[in-house]
UniProtKB/TrEMBL annotation:
UniProt similarity note: Belongs to the iron/ascorbate-dependent oxidoreductase family.
GO MF annotation list: L-ascorbic acid binding; metal ion binding; oxidoreductase activity
Region Disordered, residue ranges: 1-27
Protein keywords: Iron, Metal-binding, Oxidoreductase, Vitamin C
Record domain Fe2OG dioxygenase: where: 191-300
Species name: Dovyalis caffra
Keyword Iron appears in the UniProt entry: yes
Organism placement in taxonomy: Eukaryota, Viridiplantae, Streptophyta, Embryophyta, Tracheophyta
Protein name: Fe2OG dioxygenase domain-containing protein
Length: 352
């Protein structure tokens, strides 16, 4: 994927109404919450997937659980992902150092151009809707590391070392997770290899400052949006703020210690022939403490075919989306400037 064509979620757009329906949980006892598929639920709301279990005799069962998590929830917690607690704490520390640098130092990386190889995006006021979006986000390429690391900041001094180590570790977790997701869908190896070939990694360090209490009702960290990715893997700090639109209401995602929050992106919705859905989510701010998160986005190369592969199409599941490349999706998305998965509608077989 060429650096000049990087796609990131557009947080400048108003979120639409609507939600995807999910399966309500059932509770087997007072401590362990599970749903009807036997999925462990964190805080009774979001499934927990054990990445390490994909390497053992329970791989087949874990893939089934992963399929259920993507099919019925769209968000899940990923534990035993192989990224050490030391590294998780390390990248959070580096991110905090960066966003606490003097403004003039941080602003050296500011750019309004979303195709920049590295750029700092800053908060803004939407006068039309009379709301604030209060977030700073350092966005950059992470894979292949040797190609992009020299574009990263050198202040803090440990930035390149620690962020580079995290990007490599996140990519190491991402590949087997993606393979398992595609296997769960029923994709053949040829289709999986086509998608994974040449795909890159885009990342962001996100900072949500404390908001004055008088402005809370008019301030968002991020407005409702879906991600134009295959998957997004998010490392949040201990401060709540992420919310997912479920059954018409935004449900808070409580951070799970040392776990990643993973969500289905628009590209996977297309690849899955709408079996998996990309859900609206947002970030709220508070008046007591700042919040940090680290996102690793899985994007395919520009020439990757994003329509559902032939093995997912049959009489019971006719094609909903036609074949299209990721570059076509990218171009269409920025022309439409929609914040959610309706940007896929123009690729439907019977699009208006």
């Amino acid at each position: 994927m060429s650096p000049s064509k990087t796609l990131v979620a557009d947080d400048h757009l108003e979120s639409p109404a609507g939600a995807n329906k999910t399966i309500p949980p059932t509770y087997t006892d007072s401590k362990v919450h599970t749903d009807r598929y036997g999925l462990e639920l964190w805080e009774g709301s979001f499934p927990v997937i054990d990445l390490e279990a994909l390497r053992g005799p329970s791989r087949s069962d874990t893939i089934k659980k992963l399929d259920h998590a993507c099919r019925h929830y769209g968000f899940f917690m990923l534990k035993n992902h192989g990224i050490s607690e030391t590294l998780l704490n390390g990248i959070m520390g580096v991110a905090r150092e960066f966003f606490h640098l003097p403004e003039e130092e941080r602003m050296k990386l500011y750019s309004p151009d979303p195709t920049s190889i590295i750029r700092l995006a800053i908060g803004f006021k939407d006068d039309k809707q009379d709301v604030f979006v209060s977030r700073e986000s350092l966005k950059f390429h992470g894979h292949p590391l040797e190609k992009f690391v020299n574009t990263w900041p050198t202040n803090p001094s440990s930035f390149r070392e620690i962020v580079g180590e995290y990007c490599v570790a996140a990519k190491r977790a991402e590949i087997p997770l993606l393979e398992a997701v595609f296997e769960g869908l029923g994709m053949e190896r040829e289709s999986i290899d086509q998608i994974l070939d040449k795909h890159g990694q885009y990342a962001s360090l996100n900072y949500y400052p404390v908001c004055e209490e008088s402005n809370l009702e008019r301030t968002f960290g991020l407005r409702g949006h879906t991600d134009p990715t295959i998957l997004t893997m998010l490392l949040p700090d201990e401060v709540p703020g992420l919310e997912v639109l479920l059954n018409g209401e935004y449900l808070p995602v409580k951070p799970m210690p040392n776990a990643l929050v993973v969500n289905v992106g628009d590209a996977l919705q297309g690849l899955s022939n709408l079996q998996y859905k990309s859900l609206l989510h947002r970030v709220i701010v508070n008046s007591e403490t700042e919040r940090l998160s680290i996102a690793s986005y899985c994007y395919p190369s520009n020439d990757t075919h994003m329509g559902p592969p032939k093995e997912l199409i049959n009489d019971d599941h006719p094609a909903i989306y036609r074949d299209f490349t990721y570059e076509e999706f990218y171009t269409t998305m920025w022309k439409q400037r929609r914040p959610d998965a309706t940007r896929l509608d123009s690729f439907k077989v019977f699009a208006a």
